[in-house]
Write a structure and sequence with these properties.
3 domains, nine-stranded mixed beta sheet, alpha/beta, 486 residues, elongated, 48% helix, Rossmann fold, 20 helices
């Protein structure tokens, strides 16, 4: 710890001011625990000094402060600090990470013991806001470990978070050349719907896409279709968090959509009706086809992973993030879907009597998840959201086009989302096999004009709208991308 403090105090100009400040900012943002009370007092003084003057104090200034306070313990500790080795930039970052790792090993073992005690005999524990609560049993023990383990993972950010952009010309040119040479990497995760993809070129890493709709207006259907296209055509592993529907219902949705793939049509098969699959009402020929669909679904070597998570208890974004990062160790997760945002629990530290405050914290946490997944690797996150009654009524008057007021009860959606889309249905659309889509926000692209999509309500398949009828599929519209790159 004395080396950390030595590296943020100006001692006879041995460290340049900008390196001192850089070290301090790293130290401030870390979760280091000061084991010694005198180290903590020295750090607190340094912290207060920087906040007041925006520069690091000289050793003489620190010594004068504790001399006036007659703090003999800190004065003696300053002798050790002054004699310690100092570190800058990556060396300081490595030192800080090593010390954090050592601390977290101890914390992890303590957390494992706490979780063991909760499972075996019960234990009274204190939550994030200081409230004591008795926990007991396997469920409480696992939840206790899961909710706190994420804080022990040390960020090793791969993403660049700061720098002088006037010195980045070479990096920016290399970035452009990379995008030009490999569209698959430059593009994000395509939806398979041309009206979105030709404008947005997919949802990029670190971006949050919120899709909103009134109940029964294709929220889940849109999400499942997007995920289906990713795992079957755009070579992306998906984790789908379903907080409203049971596991079996979600997988039936995917199976029904798969029955509508173009290759089956070429063989003379018709898409299967989701409700007939659900209720066991397929005829003999349909049953034979369904079995063929399932065999292909499981054994097709071109299909990527789609892991469905349907927790049997309330979960917050931090718990979802931890579970997803554990899955990321098994296969490379490329896309996350949350169905839906209003069912996510706010973290204890963010809980409030005000529902809107809690909901806003969930949206913000989802955006942070997109930005900081896997220690800064980033990930595209899609979250479903529910339109309010007033917003729906306004859309009815406006030919199915929503306004931002339809979701203004949670203003963080507008602030944190990179893309906001909405879908609309009425009896006319249902009879015509269509749905109205619109784009309310597009941070890094032009707004997509409202458009119709084709919907086959039997298998719940969304396609590009075609005036010739029937719709065109994702297999026909890949924007010139190689599926190996997408």
């Amino acid at each position: 710890m004395k080396r950390l403090l030595r590296s943020v105090i100006d001692i006879q100009g041995t460290i340049q001011p900008e390196n001192l400040a850089h070290n301090y900012l790293r130290l401030r943002d870390s979760k280091i625990d000061w084991q010694r009370p005198d180290d903590l007092r020295v750090y607190q003084y340094i912290q207060n000094y920087f906040q007041a003057r925006l520069e690091m104090p000289a050793i003489e200034t620190v010594r004068d402060y504790f001399g006036r306070a007659n703090d003999i313990e800190c004065l003696e500790r300053l002798k050790d600090i002054e004699a310690a080795a100092y570190y800058i930039r990556t060396n300081f970052a490595h030192l800080l990470q090593t010390l954090l790792e050592d601390q977290n090993k101890v914390k992890a073992l303590a957390l494992l013991k706490e979780s063991h005690d909760i499972i075996s005999k019960g234990l009274e524990v204190q939550d994030e806001v200081g409230k004591k609560e008795r926990k007991q049993g396997v469920r409480d023990g696992v939840a206790h470990f899961t909710s706190r383990a994420m804080n022990l993972i040390i960020p090793e950010y791969n993403a660049r978070t700061s720098g002088d952009i006037t010195r980045d010309a070479k990096d920016m040119w290399d970035e452009y050349q990379s995008a030009k040479a490999n569209k698959g990497k430059a593009y994000g995760k395509l939806t398979g719907i041309d009206s979105f993809d030709t404008i947005c070129h997919g949802l990029k890493r670190g971006e949050l896409h919120v899709h909103a709709a009134f109940p029964g207006h294709l929220k889940t259907t849109f999400a499942v279709n997007w995920c289906y296209n990713l795992i079957t055509h755009y070579k992306t592993n998906v984790v789908y968090w379903s907080l409203e529907m049971p596991y079996e219902q979600v997988r039936r949705n995917f199976a029904a959509i798969h029955s509508s793939a173009d290759k089956w049509k070429a063989l003379g098969y018709k898409p299967l009706d989701y409700r007939k699959i659900r209720d066991g009402e397929l005829n003999e020929a349909e049953e034979a086809f369904y079995k063929l669909v399932l065999e292909d679904w499981e054994n097709n070597p071109d299909h990527y992973h789609c892991h469905i998570m349907c927790p049997d208890h309330d979960v917050n974004i931090e718990e979802m993030r931890l579970e997803t990062e554990l899955l990321h160790k098994q296969f490379e997760v490329g896309f996350i879907a949350i169905d839906h945002g209003q069912e996510v629990e706010a973290r204890k530290a963010k809980r409030s009597k005000d529902y809107v405050v809690e909901l806003n914290s969930v949206v913000r946490d989802a955006k942070h998840w997109a930005l900081h997944f896997n220690h800064g690797e980033k990930l595209p996150v899609m979250m479903l959201f529910q339109i309010n009654r007033q917003g729906h009524d306004e859309a009815v008057k406006n030919n199915g086009i929503y306004k931002m007021t339809a979701i203004n009860y949670a203003n963080q959606v507008e602030k944190s989302s990179d893309v906001i889309t909405a879908s609309f249905l009425d009896d006319t659309h249902r009879n015509n096999g269509t749905a109205q889509f619109c784009n309310l926000k597009n941070r890094d692209n032009p707004i997509v004009a409202p458009f119709l999509a084709q919907v086959d309500f039997g298998p719940r398949r969304i396609r590009n709208h075609s005036t010739a009828g029937g719709g065109t599929s994702v297999e026909d519209h890949d924007l010139g991308l190689s599926v190996d790159d997408a």
